[in-house]
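Consortium newsletter contribution from the modelling node. Members have asked for a concrete example of what our holo predictions look like. Here is one, prepared for the thymidine-5'-phosphate complex that several groups have been discussing at recent meetings.
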Amino acid sequence: MGTISQIQIEELERSHVHIPDRERVMDIIKQMKDDGPDKLQVVADFDRTLTKFTHRGSVCATCHNVLEESGLPKEYKEKAYAIRDKYFPIETDPNLSIEEKIPHMIEWWTQAHDLLMKYPLSKEMLYNMVANSSAKLRDGCTKFFDKLHASDVPLLIFSAGVGDIICEMIAQHSTMYDNMHVVSNDLDFDDNGKMIGFKGELIHVFNKNESAIHDSDYFTNLSHCTNVILMGDSLGDLQMANGAENVKAKLTIGFLNTRVKDSLELYKSKFDIVICEDESLDICNAIVNLITGSS
Ligand code: TMP
Ligand code: MG
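And here is the predicted structure:
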């Protein structure tokens, strides 16, 4: 049993939580608990990781879908949904390798962003677009942010979505604290607030290993945070903490939201913990609470 008996997390016993090597996971969590919150950092994906895939059975919007749901002409929505319907099945196809998916993902993001450029999006529209959208933070997300902030644990939100939508969603539905940092595709606006494109290098779901964040000061400044919790819903998310320095313990948590039967074995071979079809952050909250010494 090793150290298993020393750690009790009831949430990890739930039937939709899969842990291929339980003893190793318990050892990692125990180490993180012994080291305490000062040594911890969290790196999390946004769409379908901090946000819900479904809410009471209905599929929720991603960042890009927020732009499609309201505010712009119906024609934009129809064209964007046609693009999404072509590429989303490729993104989640367990029978294609990441290498095979990458060219399709570049096409998806490029087409989606080129299409958006043809419509009159402005900064002032974002508030209502988010307020009217079906995008939802997972149940318990605010508790998660509050706890990480109270314990001074850095949180990097690393997303192939849209940075402005992420910030607006968090502002409207939770709190953007100073321990949180968002890396994503940020909209570029002219002086009149009209959208003129995206800033910086394109982030798609499978190039999170290449992001400038890995070479920036972000991870260097956190080299004392030797313990990393990584949360994602895509296999591409596993690369999000590649720039982290001095890593002593790393726990990867994967949310498997769709095609569960087809993808479970693959996800179990890549993530330490796999959480299936869950609309909450209960499991992550339980782990963080244990590490930060609160319940
Ligand atoms: P994430 O990195 O925060 O998960 O954001 C990426 C998600 O965005 C990915 O799962 C696919 C989704 N997406 C759309 O829903 N519509 C789009 O047009 C694009 C480009 C991506
Ligand atoms: Mg995601």
